[in-house]
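Quick one: structure for this chain?
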Amino acid sequence: MNYQAPWWLPGGDLQTIWAATRSSRYQSAQPQFRRERWTSPDQDFVDVDWLQDAVPKDPDYRPLLVVFHGLEGASDSHYAQAFADAARARNWACAVPHFRGCSGEINRAPRAYHSGDFAEIDWILRRFKQQHAGPVFAAGVSLGGNALMRWAGELENAAAELVLAISAVSAPLDLAASGHALGKGFNRLVYTRMFLNSMVPKALKKLDRYPQLFSRQALLNARDLYDFDNVVTAPLHGFKDTNDYWTRASAKPHLVRIQVPALVLNARNDPFVPHKSLPGAHEVSASVTLWQPEEGGHVGFAQALGAWPGAAHVRAMPAAVCEFLAQHLPASAVKIPAEQ
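Got it. Here's what it folds into:
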């Protein structure tokens, strides 16, 4: 991806914040979703938002794009709507599965979700494969991108039974490097505070349901993601502590095992992901394509709308990712024209 930020959006922080808060996410009408609730193998649930078509097709033989969101994201996140718009432009189906507790309702089980939950990714993708008649693509954003790549490395050749190709966008593939970066300076004051303002109230609600789950006071004392993961994420998901979690959940050491076509897109000025932690060509398999533009921020990649400053859209990145994925459609695939 050849990307250059608008001149009036200098630096990774501005490119990140503007994209998330001010940019245009779709070209015409806002994507509309219909919700479906799936029961998980442990009798919990996840909510899946399907892009709502004007004329639903049953069975649907179009390609399906599954978008795994980032930390505390959802189908209304700017990137999820932009991906849905890009899928709609190609007349693909699109779905956004919500990680547990991210759809607006606290999940039932003691556990929540985490960056390396490849088992959760696996059962979700298997459900999509069973339910959808056409080929399946998957794109993961930030946390969702790490989890998706962790899954692809774990399954190796077997991943091709479920997906044709995958992509990770702005994924923190080295969780320790990103976690420590988010615990410092401006990142700690802005991004970490934003995440904790969402995560801590959810954890307190879960504690009301399961009073012995973890220490309430330790949770209230958490000042960064390291602290939060030590109190909540790590013990709830079978890790010894934050260091164990960040080490075992990171996808970077597993990129050499990926056998399905995969695109890994990271801006080198991403404030969440230090550029020194990004994988090099020698650290990935031949199936992995690395795109590492100098600019873009964290899930930013805004494109200017016209010559005047102040207006931008975030549709170019999802369109470029979808173009990569589309290259892996079989020659026999028939393009279905959009309904009029």
